[in-house]
């Protein structure tokens, strides 16, 4: 098994004499700690952007289409409104995953869009790093 540089994973073992937990025994398997606060804050900020913007666009589609149709400016089929808003909400759902996967899980914050972190973090999740 390759050694992981992920800040979330540590392995523990019981000290047979004192029933205390110590590190680096593979007999019990991996035990995972909580996500560090700085990394969780980065994830929350990125998730807020990548889900918030498309969700707000989805709501804006409903409101703008209602105004346009109710004032008889343009006749918009209801199916088109549903399709456009559904696409925005689907992008919001994808943004949730992208917000987590594109966040730097290291000490340094990474770039604004985080494209370079995606493959690194996917490999971490698969256990290949």
Describe the overall structure:
- The protein is built from 3 helices and 3 strands.
- With 129 residues, it is mainly α.
- The termini are close together.
- Strands 2-1-3 form a 3-stranded antiparallel sheet, with no helix packed on it.
- The chain has one domain.
- Pfam families: DUF3464.
- InterPro entries: PAM68-like.
What key attributes describe this structure?
about 130 residues; mainly alpha; 3-stranded antiparallel beta sheet; 3 strands; about 55% helix; elongated
Write the layout of secondary structure elements.
Layout: E1 9-14, E2 21-23, E3 30-32, H1 37-70, H2 78-101, H3 115-126
Antiparallel strand pairs: 1-2, 1-3
InterPro entries: PAM68-like
Transmembrane segments: 47-68, 80-101
Region (Disordered): 1-29
